[in-house]
Amino acid sequence: AQSVTQLGSHVSVSEGALVLLRCNYSSSVPPYLFWYVQYPNQGLQLLLKYTSAATLVKGINGFEAEFKKSETSFHLTKPSAHMSDAAEYFCAVSAARTGGYQKVTFGTGTKLQVIP
Amino acid sequence: NAGVTQTPKFRVLKTGQSMTLLCAQDMNHEYMYWYRQDPGMGLRLIHYSVGEGTTAKGEVPDGYNVSRLKKQNFLLGLESAAPSQTSVYFCASTGGRGAIDNEQFFGPGTRLTVL
Known about the structure:
- The structure holds 2 protein chains of 2 kinds.
- Chain A has no helices and 11 strands.
- By secondary structure, chain A is mainly β.
- In chain A, strands 2, 4, 5, 9, 10 and 11 form a 6-stranded mixed beta sheet that branches. A 5-stranded antiparallel beta sheet of chain A has the order 1-3-8-7-6, with no helix packed on it.
């Protein structure tokens, strides 16, 4: 079984402040972890993914995430928020290939508001 | 390269009406998925396809049917729409033989309201 929990459905930060979006996962096998971003009225697009090559993963737009096995966490961070970062962010886990397909479980999402 | 496209973008149905949502991808991907997105629930898998001519049920398949007659197209049908099917529907595709570390490419979504 696999699952992800995103703490905080809404997060507000000031422009230029640190962005921290939390994600904890549960998996019975070594997981592959993803962060996707959804801008208003658009589909999801990949920010970054963890595939066991390195615990600190860098993504697009200055975002990065650190895989911590002991804490079962994969939190997303960005040192300085920009207005264009306002969006909804989804953590996802893929740890099984069931029925011949990639089973991905998405979190419930965190909406990031950036205050000027 | 258009990626993944979805038709229509918006639709309003009355209870009991039927409709088909079309998804098309130009990346030659084998795997395609239909998800629904509801507030506070993330994305839930409705149906998926691992190749042309094949389909299978996901987590929430009831009330929906799908077809994959051509590799590039994945259709989602609602035979008799219900208000509980009001949602935003996303199509996604992935290549690389469905490996578990693959990125999924998403369409822009279809916003469906059932009155």
